[in-house]
Amino acid sequence: MLASSVSTLSDCPRLAPPAVREVPPLDACVPVSGGIYHLGDARDRIVALDPFLIGRWPVTTSHLRRFAEATGRPMSAALRDRLEAEQLADHPATEVSFADAVSFCSWAARELGRSVRLARGDEWEAAARGAGGSIRPWGDVFDADRCNSVESAWGWTVPVRAHPSGAAASGAEQLAGNVWEWVGDPPDEDGWRSVRGGSYLDTGWGVRAARVLPADPERPSATTGFRIVIDCGDSRSSPGGSPR
Known about the structure:
The chain is an alpha+beta fold and 244 residues long. 18% of the residues lie in helices and 16% in strands. Strands 1-4-10-5 form a 4-stranded antiparallel beta sheet. It has a 4-stranded mixed beta sheet with strand order 8-7-6-9, covered by helices on one side. It has a two-stranded antiparallel ribbon with strand order 2-3. Mean pLDDT is 90; it is low at 1-17 and 235-239.
C-alpha cells in the first residue's frame, strides 16, 4: 500500500499537465489477481473473483470518436462537440449512456479480436482497492494531488494520464475522481444501473472506492464515462498497457 499524508487545499496546488499527452492504446490493460476481496465501506462483504484484465485508464474521447466513426452510432450535440475537440482527445470519454458503453465494448471486441465488456461492480472495486482493501486506490488517506476531485480545483475533466501517483496496486489509474464509470451490474428494481469512482464534482469522501451511485442508463452526462475489462481466459490478451 502506498504511504499517504494529509493534504489541504493550500498544500495541494493544481497538478502540472502530464509530461506525456498521448492517447493510450485501446487494449491498454493491467491484470487484477483472482482471489478473496473484502469490499464495502466496512470491508465486511467478502467476494471471490476470477482474475481479469481491466483498462489501465478510462476509455478516451479519441477511442470513442473511432467507435462513432466506425459504427455511425447516433450522437447527441454535447457528445459531438466533445468528440470534435482535439484538446480533449486524451481526456476520458463522457456524454455516453449505458447502452453506448456496452456498444463500444462490442465494437472494441471486434477491433481487438478479444472478449471485451464492462467491469462488474465487484471487479471494479477490487481493482481499485487491491487485496489490502484500501479506502482509495493509493491508500486510506485522501490526497488531492493523486486524483481529480473538488479539492483538486480543476473543475473539469483532465487527461487520463494526469495522475500516475494515484494508481492502484494493480496499476490501474484514475479509479478515484475525474469521471464516474459505468459498470456492468444488473439493473435495480427501477431499471437504473450503477456507476463507480466519483468525478471532478465530488469531494475526497465521494471518490472512495466503495461508493456506488445509481444512475439513469438512458441519461448521458458530462461526468460519466467507462473503462473496459478483458477476461483472462482470452489467451490473446496482453496485459501491461502496451500495444499488441
